[in-house]
Structures are given as C-alpha cells and as structure tokens.
Amino acid sequence: MGAIVAIVGRPNVGKSTFFNRLIQRREAIVDAVSGVTRDRHYGKSDWNGKEFSVIDTGGYVLGSDDIFEQEIDKQVELAIQEADAIIFMVDVETGVTGMDEDVAKLLRRVNKPVFLAVNKVDNAMREEDAVEFYSLGLGDFYTLSSINGSGTGDLLDALVKELPDVVEEESELPRFAVVGRPNAGKSSFINALIGEERYIVTDIAGTTRDSIDTKYNRFGFEFNLVDTAGIRRKSKVKEDLEFYSVMRSVRAIEHCDVCLLLLDATRGFDGQVENIFWLAARNHKGIVILVNKWDLVEDKETNTIKQYTQRIKQAIEPFTDVPILFISVLTKQRIFKAIETAVEVYENRNRKIQTRKFNDVMLPLIENYPPPAYKGKFVKIKFCTQLPTPYPQFAFFCNLPQYVREPYKRYLENKIREEFNFTGVPMAVFMRKK
Q1: Residues 252 and 179 sit within 8 Å (Cβ to Cβ)
Q2: What pLDDT is attached to residue 239?
Q3: Are the C-beta atoms of 407 and 371 separated by less than 8 Å?
Q4: What are the beta bridge partners of residue 86?
Q5: Residue 73 pLDDT > 90, yes or no?
C-alpha cells in the first residue's frame, strides 16, 4: 500500500505551488492572497521509483475567528494524524512567525518523520537567512524554491528514504473497495450484500471510520470487500468528517483492485465524488460508479437515467468508459448486478492480449489513420504490444515517438477499448523508439 505525505504550514508559504510541482499538474489554485487553499487537494507523485500520495492542506492559523480557518486547522491536524510523513513549509522572506511556531509545537509532538522545508530560497543571500529556522526545534531543514524547483531533489531524496516500502499482499482473492462521500450508503451496501448487520449504519455522516475487510463468497463470487467502516468515537465528533472520509478512501483505494464508487443520487456527482473518482483512476484501479438511493429521486421520467448518466460522463471526461449503475441499497435494487459488474471490471483489468492478435487488429487501424505529420516529419508505427504490468499498458514502437501528440494517443486508446473489452479500467499508451 502506498504512503501518504501531507504538506502543512501557515497560509501563503507556497504549499500549493510545491504540490503542483510534485504531481506535475497545475491542480491547486495558487495566488498571492493567503488562504486560497480551503479544500484539500490529493495527487500522486513518485521519486526514485517510489510512489506516494500527496495532500495539500490549507494554511494553519491557530485560534482564528475565521470559520474557514478553523475548519482548515481541523483538516491539517487530521492530515498529520493520517500521513506517513509530513513536509512543514515555511517562508524565508518573512522569517519565523508566531504561526510557524504554533505549527512547529504541534509537529514536535508527532512521532512521524517531519521535514522542514524553507521555501522561496532562490539565491545565496536567502540561504544564509534560512538559518533562523533552527529555532523551531525541528532539527535540520531543506532550502528550496517551489517556483523554479531548485532544492526539491534533496528534500525528496530524504523523504522517500523514510517512507514505508510498498508491500503487495499475496492474495488470490480480488479486493473491491467501497468508497464515496459520508452517508452515501457504503455500510448499508455491504450489509445488504452479506445479509447481516455487520457495520453500524446511522443517518449521521461519518459513522464509518476504519478500513475493514469482509470476505464475500456467494452465488459463485469470491472476493474481499474493503469498506471504510468502524464506530464513531464521541471524542472525535468535531472532526471534519468529509476530510476524514477522503483520507480513508486514499488508503482503501491504494489497497484494492476495483473501486465501487457509491454516490447519493439526491446529491449528484459533486466535486468530492469526482475527487475520489480521479484518485482511483490515477492509481490505475478498476472503477464502477454506483448511483445509490435511486428510489428517492422524484419525478423520474423515461430519459432521467440517460440524462443523469450523461452528466456523470461529462464530469469524468476523457475517461468515460466506466460502468454506471443505478441502485437502491434499501430495496436491494440491482445490488447484485453491481457485484457482477465489479467482477467483470476486475477481469478486464487483468486481461492480457496476445501480441500477434494485438498487432493484427491495431496495425491496419493505424495504417488507415496514421499519426498526423508534425514539423514535416511522418511517424511510422511498426509494432505494438501489451506490457507485463498489473494494469493495462500498451507500447507502440515507431521511428519518431516524440512527434506523436496526445490526441493521437487518445485515438489509439479509444480503438483499443472498441476492439478489446477494457470497460472500467484506466490504461496507459506509450510511444517507444523502434
């Protein structure tokens, strides 16, 4: 299971810029105004061959009257609890502030690797100014610049040495994770499947807590169900339950083969659900979208399901080849169809295509629609094969791989999906030099 790294610190020290650099996408909003990051961002990064999930938290402001900042503080504390390692970011331009000292005080009590990153150090003079951060009592620090990337390598070298090694559990049984927002019906779904009230179910969002495995062996299906389930502790009632849910989802997703993404039909496919969807896709897991509580949707017409499906597919473009089922856990409507579909997606994820058959199908398609010429150069694809990896990856060998643009790679992916069944499974297409 992959490791989780949390980036914490007071507002406006460059956490989001650093996060965007790590995941190599411009995902978190970056602005000179402090407090822009109110939601959490989740991404996947890797360094020296070691993959890890990154969480960009909002800025920590202890004792603030601002309701947003109070919520951010809770999320930062939760990130610290859940993460395997913590990057504490400070700003050399402003030096040590009272808020930095508040965060440092919190981190000194944490029994986890903490890396003090002094940001905005882009010249030798600022390197000398960084010495004052020894006063935070967190030991050595790393100087870097989030904007231009200088110094990030040394920090990441030290970080990955402290991260736990990924241990793939030897299990012949597929692992299906039931994930989604709080109160979407995840525990009720598993209770309905196994036919007993194993998990506590209440109307309070966030009743479900820790990941628990349940072996399912019925109607010819056998697999492990992973639910973010457990008992709500009274001492933790004030936690940001949305955040806790997604933190647990990170763990469950990394630890499974197929994600059953449950959403509440009355709330729709909102940003939180979309966040979890892309987390599963970036972790290369099979995905089945289950629209629960369909019985509660009023004024259903002939085209209601079609329109609802269309809205979901627009939100998840370009990866739209995902099964979407409309279920009701309460009435057990289509819940066993959901399991059948998850098993099919698991089989799709493990599908291996013979190289000869793959070439016989794909090369004529490529010949009929070759890659467009780029800078006057013509690309000729001569051979293709599926790579021996846990999820579908395909390599196409050609004379000029650097001239094959993303739209053509998407065309190849769409053709692979048309010719071979990879519904519900993210895939990767690579161009290689022949």
Answers
A1: yes
A2: 44
A3: no
A4: 6, 114
A5: no
How far is residue 261 from each of residues 192, 319, 324, measured CA to CA in Å? Answer: 16, 15, 10
> What pLDDT shows up at residue 211?
44
**CB-based contact 341:325 (threshold 8 Å):** yes
Q: DSSP letters of 71-121?
A: HHHHHHHHHHHH-SEEEEEEETTT-S-HHHHHHHHHHHT--S-EEEEEE--
pTM: predicted TM-score of the whole model, two decimal places? 0.62
Given the structure tokens 């049984």, which residue do they identify? 173
Average pLDDT of span 257-278: 84
CB 177 within 8 A of CB 259: yes
What is the rounded average pLDDT of the residues 229-236?
34
| Predicted confidence (pLDDT) per residue in 141-154, tens digit | 898 888 888 888 88
- d(CA 410, CA 317) in angstroms, rounded, equals 12
Q: Cis (ω within 30 of 0) for the bond into 174?
A: no
Segment (H or E) for 263: strand 258-264
Tokens coding 81: 């609890």
Q: Tell me the torsion sign for CA atoms 259, 265, 266, 267.
A: positive
**Burial code of 217-226, b = ≥16 C-beta within 10 A, e = fewer?**
eeeeeebbbb
Question: Chain-wide mean pLDDT for the chain?
Answer: 77
Neighbours of 72 (CB within 10 A): 25
CA distance 98 to 201: 43
Strand order in the sheet with 324-326: 211-218, 221-228, 175-180, 258-264, 286-292, 324-326
How long is the chain? 434
The total of other beta-carbon atoms located within 10 Å of residue 424's CB is: 24
**Maximum Cα–Cα distance for the chain, whole Å?**
70
Name residues whose C-beta falls within 8 Å of residue 273's C-beta, 6 or more positions apart in sequence: 180, 181, 261, 263
DSSP reduced 3-state for 253? helix
pLDDT tens digits, one per residue of 399-420: 888 888 888 999 999 999 989 9
Q: Which tokens in the block code for residue 3?
A: 């490791």
What is the distance between the terminal CA atoms of the chain, rounded to a whole angstrom?
35
Report the amino acid identity of residue 157.
Answer: D
pLDDT tops 80 at residue 431: yes
DSSP 365-421: HHHHSPPPPBTTB---EEEEEE-SSSS-EEEEEES-GGG--HHHHHHHHHHHHHHS-
